[in-house]
Amino acid sequence: MTLLIARKELTEMVRDGRFRVSGAIVFTLLAGALLLGWQNYREVNAQHTAAQQASRAQWLNQGKKNPHSAAHYGVYAFKPKMPLSLVDHGTDSYTGVAVWLEAHKQNEFKYRPAQDATAVQRFGELTGATVLQLLVPLLIVLLSFNAFSGERELGTLRQLLSLGVSQSQLATGKALGVAASLGLLLVPAALIGSLAITAASGQGDIMASLPRVGWMALSYLLYFGAFVGVSLAVSAWAPSSRAALIILLGFWMVNGLIAPRAASDLAKVLKPSPSAFDFDQQMQLALAKGSDGHEAGARAKMLETELLKKYKVDKAEALPVNMLGVRLQDSENHGNEIFDQSYAALWDTFSQQNRVHQLVALVAPGLAIRSLSMGFAGTDFPQHTHFATAAEEYRRTIQRTMNDELTYQAPNTGAPYMANNDLWQKVSPFQYRAPSATWVAGQQAPSLGIVGVWFAGSALMAAWAARRVQVY
Amino acid sequence: MLFRLMKHEWRNLNADRTPLAIALLLGLAIVYGAANGSLWVGFQQRTINSALSEERERLKGVRAVIPKIESGELKTSPFTDPRLPQALGRGPGVRYAVMPPAALGALAVGQSDLYPYYFKVTTGSKQTFLNSDEIENPVHLLAGRFDLSFVILYLFPLVILAFSYNLVSAEKEGGTLALALSQPVTLRTLVLAKVLLRAGFVIALAVLLSVAGVAVGGANLAADGAGVRLLYWIAVTTAYGAFWFALAVAVNALGRSSATNAMSLAGLWLLFVVVIPSVLNVGVKAAYPVPSRVDLIQATRVAGDAATRRGAQLLALYIEDHPEMAPAQKGGAPDFGTIQIAVSEATERAVQPVLDRFDAQVAGQQIIVDRFRYLSPAIVAQSAFNDLAGTSAHRYRHFLVQADNYHRQWRAYFIPRILQKVKLSAADLDQLPTFTYREEDLGSVASRLQLSFFGLLFPVFLVAFPAWRWLRQYPIAG
Question: What are the phi and psi torsion angles at A110 (to 5°)?
């Protein structure tokens, strides 16, 4: 019986001109967005890979140099694009693409792609995620707002129930009908998306992409399910189709457009982030308490005394190590402590802000799906910091290698010391491993929970409302 | 007659509580949006103030320390001695180039959360200081702000549509349309009365509350040009609202049911506010793709390496080009600061074509957007709001040009002194070039705003004209 209802719903929808037109529009936008995303991915990824190799070549071919000059020269780390970013650009347009790894300083990522776009960008980008998060739910609302109220207004609800169809059967059938008609456009779109992701991942990474694809698909299915449930519940509960439509459009609006902005404002008020100026100023102040390692000051004297004691010699010239190397590494250590503190505090503020978003997501699940989608696409902020941390780790490795060379290889006479290609080779190329899908799922557990609860809750709500549906 | 009809409509609206509730929601959103915009302006202002006070304190410190170094009381290295122009112009002496928020900045956050509003100008290359991006959670940048511009662009049309989606269809469905038209009144007059009343109410509410909101939020309405900008805000908001009313009338004039009208209007809203802008965004990026800035980084690096290798040689060439800057006394190896000037000059020259390519692509995008924005009144209104709030890319570029000039001035002061190995004194600190932001010429802003305004007015007539004709064929019964 349930299947019969579902089949009738599907046939009716497919024959409805409005569904065909809106379905075709949504499908075209979705397929187009995915293909554009793929093209964009290919271009950007090729640029970043080439640049990363070029940066490595520059590092290796810098010729004879003092190790500390090489440390100042440094390398660039370019943020790789994840294959799934073709579905959801997430925050990629609003985070910098590259960071300079140089001596003394943990730099900020530079060049946010959105700065090279026009203000139209701020209306939102046309990506698979935009279509899936904004347009598909709207389509669901349009397909199901009159599921119950429409039958009642036509007088067919009475007939149906008199045939012995139970309300829950009716509700399940209607839900399946909507799901089937959505499937007609989502399944082909998912195929296109999967092909694009496969092509983008290349042979090596497809195994890493697959679990992310699975998680992302699951998240969206739960979310769409929740929307179907809410729509059916409202349709059964509302006094008229018109009221149901207005309520559902209001929910869609608040969920998709108002809540994200309101949540951002709320988060900013509750957990304010510092201005870049204050952040920098505070860091400079803390750094100034140490020494930059270049000059001989009080800190240098202390280090020297310690070393004299350690090596049991009585003057600096007799030390088996180069004092400049020791001083530089000491200042690096001091700096690293401060960078760790400052960035940890900043990123903690951001993650507290994101927690505020999660709280708002309890009433507006659109925020949860946005977070899930970005997360599994690899374009959310936690994964940006994951990369930033790896890059900083690499910077510290370079610094340590250069300073160790100075400390243990350079003569302690103050004579100029030159290192060559052998030393540059000692620093292995920068390899970044993106976190696994499981790591992301762990990060996203609250959002996943919220979408799950909405899915289950909306199903219960729909069943409850269906049982109490007004027949007349 | 018109007036009598409007009075009747007003009573009708008053009897129903829904419009009042909707109006109340719009009012709340406007007040909230204005408060939000004012908060952001306040944040920028505070940041600028702390930057300027840091500059003041720093220069005061330098002034105090120079005599001590001169007297030999304090020892320094060539990297930190503030008397040496190469040290002063890079570190302790630098000044900020600041673009304060405009008088009506609270109306629209626009692009101001994406572009820097102050630079620490040094003798180094432009790229070293052009990146003072504000810290912001990227998720917030992605979502955008709940400012007045958002309320007017997104919510205001919805309120208008909620007021007027069943302008005629409800009367017809209630059976009162035929009754009303049996009186000596035409359908057109009736519709005009309904629209005028609603438009007057909603638009006045939006305009008055937003002006009051920013005024309370601390906007300086007495500032130069603020009045003109405010007038444009009112004009653009009115024209934008008129467009949506015209659209509602046109859809009503087709004679469908209230439910169909609601769905069609919701679809049109989605089309103009969400779909067209995002498709246009994709389109301009495809037409003028901006290469990843990664290319710029690499180009700068390559040019820098090449220049560094030829450092001494470049310096010789540089002195040949600028003999007046030759060091006062000959002999001795050129010092680090001197070579650095020649190197950074050569690097910048080599990178300029790459930078120009970026600018050309972004400018190309802007041209397409400027041309095709008329496809959606929302885009036209957005660009107008950003323009009059001073948060557009136009104003940012205007600031960039001034900062660039200032950078040149700064270098023109320091470079000859570095080359001639001049030692500066405390008195010289007063001679350092200073930066004052000159606001965009009101004429050029106004001409852009005028274009936007007419770009909004045109679609109003484009929609209203056929609607007016269709109304004559409206199926009053059946």
Answer: -110, 160
- pLDDT, tens only, A13-24: 888 877 888 889
For residue B296, which amino acid is it? Answer: L
| Greatest distance between any 2 Cα atoms in chain B | 105
Residues ≥6 apart with Cβ < 8 Å to A286: A338, A341, A342
Put simply, whether B141 touches A (Cβ < 8 Å) is yes
- Residues of chain B with C-beta less than 8 angstroms from the C-beta of A276: 47, 132-135
Q: Into how many domains does chain B fold?
A: 1
Contact criterion met (CB below 8 Å) for B105 and B391: yes
Residue B329: pLDDT over 60: no
Alpha helices in B271-310 (DSSP H): 276-287, 294-309
Q: Does B133 touch chain A (CB under 8 A)?
A: yes
pLDDT tens per residue across span B268-305: 999 999 999 999 998 888 888 887 788 888 888 888 88
Which stretches of B373-441 are DSSP H helices?
A: 377-389, 393-419
Q: Could you give phi then psi for residue A238, rounded to 5 degrees? A: -70, 150
Q: Taking Cα atoms as reference points, which of A344, A345, A419, A425 lies closest to residue A389?
A: A344
State mean pLDDT over B229-246: 94
Mutate to test the interface with B, among A38, A97, A122 (most CBs of B within 10 A): A122
Pull the structure tokens for residue A268. 């900013």
Closest CB to A126: pick one of B278, B297, B379: B278
For residue B85, give its domain range. Answer: 1-266+324-338+372-478
Using a 10 angstrom Cβ sphere, with 0-12 exposed, 13-18 middle and 19 or more buried, the burial of residue B374 is middle
Put simply, the answer to whether A108 touches B262 (Cβ < 8 Å) is no
Q: Residue B13: how many CA atoms within 13 Å on its side-chain side?
A: 24
Q: Check CB contact under 8 Å for B278 and A76.
A: no
CA distance A384 to chain B (A): 10
**Nearest-CA neighbor of B274 among B397, B139, B452, B154?**
B154
Helices of type H across A238-380: 241-253, 259-270, 276-288, 298-311, 323-361, 366-377
Q: Round the average pLDDT of chain A to a whole number and report it.
A: 89
Residues from chain B contacting residue A115 (CB–CB below 8 Å): 114-115
- Interchain proximity A118–B305, CB inside 8 Å: no
- Read off the pLDDT of each residue in A89-105 and give the average, rounded to a whole number: 91
Whether B259 is in a domain gets the answer yes
Determine how β-strand A98-102 pairs with β-strand A105-106: antiparallel
CB contacts of A18 in chain B (<8 Å) are 263
Q: Which residues pair with A419 in a beta bridge?
A: A65
Indicate left, alpha or beta for A155 from its phi (over 0: left) and psi (-120 to 50: alpha).
Answer: left
B377 in contact with A, Cβ within 8 Å: no
Predicted confidence (pLDDT) per residue in B375-413, tens digit:
999 999 999 999 999 999 999 999 999 999 999 999 999
pLDDT digits (tens, 9 = 90+) for A305-316: 888 888 888 877
φ/ψ of A322, rounded to 5, equals -85, 125
Query: Given a cut of 80, is residue A296 above it in pLDDT?
Result: no
Distance from CA of residue B280 to its chain's centroid? 19
pLDDT of residue A238 exceeding 50, the answer is yes
Q: Read off the tokens for A379.
A: 């374009």
Nearest by CB to residue B135, choosing from A54, A120, A279, is A279
pLDDT at B333 over 60: no
Give the angle A157-A160-A164 at the CA atoms, nearest 5°. 135
Asked if the structure places residue B348 within a domain, the reply is no
Task: Compute how many other C-beta atoms are within 10 angstroms of the C-beta atom of residue A57.
Answer: 10
**In a domain? residue B74:** yes
pLDDT tens for each residue of B202-231: 999 899 888 888 888 777 778 888 889 999
Q: Which range is least confidently modeled, A2-11, A412-421, B80-89, B242-251?
A: A412-421
Spatial separation of the C-alpha atoms in residues A360 and A354, rounded to whole Å: 10
